Amino acid sequence: MTTPAQIERLGGYLHKLRLQKCAERLEALLQQAAADELPYADFLEQVLGEEVAAKTAKNVSMRTAMARFPFVKPLETFDFAYQPSIDKRQVMTLASCHFIEHGDNVIVLGPPGVGKTHLGVSLGIKAIEAGYRVLFTSAAQLIATLTKALAEGRLDEKLKFYTTPRLLIIDEIGYLPFDRQGANLFFQLISRRYERGPMILTSNQSFGAWGEVFGDRVIATAILDRLLHHAVTLNIRGNSYRLKEKLKAGLVRSIDEQPQPGGEI
């Protein structure tokens, strides 16, 4: 029978080893083990399993906060039925995070409101759960930060900040045009991460329109050349989630009922 003195000593050992969850649950685990007559190996597996689970959850929570997501939505909440143009099997393959090990970029294209940011965040969460460090930023915030760093003489430091995470997610490319300096700064970042760290990028513009987005077709071509060298592209063609209820009520037309613009995608 385990004595109070033994429990106290064991708790002290666990605290010194920084096994906090085990220390908190020690007495309950011992009582359960005695009641179930667990073999020593089974008891040890249970104790260490709880500690590993607690540490993993804590690390995931910490990395999620550091990722700076605009919201936290797991992939399981994505409505694939509402966006049939998306190959669910392809997305679930990406969720395995093998693309990170292979160094592949993921580029998600589509009109506003179709779930591009949701997919980017969800894949970022999967990467965090797999143990990777992730950072999320909008294209506008990225360029504003790099521009400020350039003016302050800290550009190299800030480029390193965006290069260090294993996975970088850049959202909303194309919603606001880049000036020449912004395009050059973006190119520098892409060049630094090229074949070193994969990225997820979302854009409401087809690749053919990126020359206008960056204000320079030469820079746009150089950026796309690096991004698409190792890349998976998801092209979403569907209705906005934000208009979902209005579509049901017949207040707006479905994208399938609207005239389609020309241009290569």
If you had to describe this structure to a student in words, what would you say it looks like?
The chain is 54% helix and 10% strand. Strand 3, helix 9 and strand 4 form a beta-alpha-beta unit. Strands 2-3-4-1-5 form a 5-stranded parallel sheet. The chain contains 12 helices and 5 strands. The protein has 2 domains: 59 residues, no CATH class; 190 residues, Rossmann fold (3-Layer(aba) Sandwich), CATH 3.40.50. With 265 residues, the protein is an alpha/beta fold. The termini are far apart. Helix 1 runs antiparallel to helix 2, helix 2 packs antiparallel against helix 3 and helix 7 packs across helix 9. It is elongated, with a radius of gyration of 24 Å. The C terminus is likely disordered.
Number of strand elements: 5
Largest sheet: 5 strands, parallel
- In total, the number of domains comes to 2
Low-confidence stretches: 259-265
Percent range for β-strand residues: 5-15%
Name of the top-level CATH class of the largest domain: Alpha Beta
Instruction: Label the overall shape.
Output: elongated
SSE order: HHHHHEHEHHEHEHHEH
Give the CA-CA distance, first to last residue.
Answer: 72 Å
Q: State the CATH architecture of the largest domain.
A: 3-Layer(aba) Sandwich
Number of helices: 12
Mean pLDDT, nearest integer?
91
Rg from Cα: 24 Å
Order of neighbouring strands in the sheet with most strands: 2-3-4-1-5
